Amino acid sequence: MAPAALFVACLAATACLTSATSIPSTDSASIDFGPSEVEARQNAYSIFNAIHSAMRQWGSSLNHNGMSFFLATVPAGVMLYHGTSSPHSPPGPEWLAFEIEHAEMFAHPRYGRGKPPIPPRHGTPPGTQHPLIAPYDKGQTREPEHGHGYLHLYRTTSPLNLLYLDGTSAGNTAMGTLDTQDLILRFNRSAPVWDEAGRARELCDIVVPWGLHGVLRMEAGFEIIKCADFMRGMEMVASHRRPEVGKDKGAEGDRKAERFEFVRAVAQRYHGIGAGRVVVDWSSMVSGLFYEVDLGDKEKPRLVGLKDGELRGIRGRVAEVVKAREGEGRKGVVDWQGVVDMVVGRYADRLRDMAEGGGSLEKMQGEVNSLLNIYIDYVAEDEGYRKSIHRCAKHYTSSVARVTQEDKLILTAIETVMLDICSTLFEVRNVVVEGLEAHGEALRQAREALQGLMDRLRWTRWKQCVGCNYDEICTKQQVSESRAKVKHCVSRESNAGPIDGNDGFYH
C-alpha cells in the first residue's frame, strides 16, 4: 500500500496510532455529549495549531476565533501595569496589561458628563485595550474631570490562577472572537459586542467560585481581567502621574507615535510572552474542537451553531477540569506546546523549501533523505515503509506520559498531524528517490504533494513577513470579514492607515 493510501486507511480505520474511544462527560445535563478522540482526529490540524499559537501574539491574531480554554498561572514576582484616571487602586474587576505601552494607552483623564466616545466601525482599533472607562480621544471636545492620568505598576506577591481563553478573545468584533466567553461561559447569544464592563463582571461571577483570580485574554497585547478584591495577590509598586493632556507634547508625544510604539511592544510577543510570566497548564485544555459540533468554516470556526445543551456541556467540562486540576492535581503537566514546537521547528522551513523553492531533483532527494533516514532500518523488510512511517509519526510522542483525559485527545491530534507529515514525505521519497518518472515530472509530483500538505497544516510560521527592517514591524491587516489579510512591514512613517486605527480590523 502506498504511503498516502496508508494515511487515508489509518484515518478511516481510526486504529493505527490511537483508539477511537469517547471520553464521557460527567455533566448530568449532557450524559451522551462529550469530547471524543474521533473529533480530535477530525480537527487535528486546528488543535495542533491552537496549542502552537497559545500565548503567542502572532498565531493568536491570525487564528483569531479561539475555541479553547486553558488554566494558566502568573507566578509571584511578575510586573503588571494598569492605566487609569486615579492614583488609587481600583476595587475590581479591572484590567491589567503585561506591557507598559499597553497600559499607557489608558493612563489618561476620565471624561465628565456627556456622550461617550463612539467605538470604531470595524471592531477593535489597533493598540487598544478594553477598559471599564472609555479611552481618551483627542477629537473629543468634553473637558476631563481631572487633568492627569496615572500609570500603576503592580507586582504579584503570590501566583494568580486564571482561565485563559485562546485566540483574540479580547477583540470586540462580531467575527467570533468573543464566542467562547459570550456563548460557552455566559450562555448569552445576544451580548452587545462593546459591553466590556458587563462581560467582565459576568466572567468574574463565573470564575471566582471556581477558585480563580480572573481571566486571561488577548487583543493587541495580553491582558488580565482581575476580579473583585483587586489587590489580592499583588502589591502596588508605584503610581506615576502622566503629563497633562494637550500641554506637554514633549513628554506625551503624538498619538501616531504612541500607537506605533505600542504595536512595536506587542510585536515583541509574537512568539511568546516571555520570561516565564505565564505558565500554561497544557493538560487542562478544553476545546470545542474536541466535540462533535457544528463549527462552520474550519479556518474561521464559530460557536454560534451549537445547541444550548452543547454549550452547557462544554462549560460543564471546563468547570470539571478546573476543579480536578486545582492544588495537587496540577502537578502533572505535559508540555504539549514544547512537543508541537519541536515538530514545527524540524519541518516548517524544510517543507517550504522543498515545496516552493527551486533546485534540482538531487537537492530534493537530499532534503527528503535527511528528514527520513533516521526512521528507516535498511536491513529489515518494511513493505510500503509502514513501520518507518509509524516510527516517524510517533517520534516526538512515544515517551509522553499522559496525565489527563484531555492529554489523550491532544495526543490523538498531534499523532494524526504527524502521520500526515510522515506519510506525505515517504510518498515524496518514493517519487524522487525510488520512482522511475523523468526528473521534471518527479519534481512536479513531489511539490504538488508537499504544497497539499502545507495547505492542510496551515502553520502560522509560513505567514510571517520576511526581511522587515529594525525600524519596522510585521503586521497583518484584515479590513473586513470578506477581505483577505494582507502582510505588511510597516514603520512609523509608513503606517498612516493601520496604526492610526482608521483602516479596519487589525492584527
Automatic annotation (TrEMBL):
The entry's keywords: Signal
Presence of keyword Signal: yes
Lineage: superkingdom: Eukaryota
Signal peptide: 1-20
InterPro entries named among the record's database cross-references: YOR389W-like
Name of the protein in its database record: Uncharacterized protein
Provenance organism: Achaetomium macrosporum
Organism classification: Eukaryota, Fungi, Dikarya, Ascomycota, Pezizomycotina
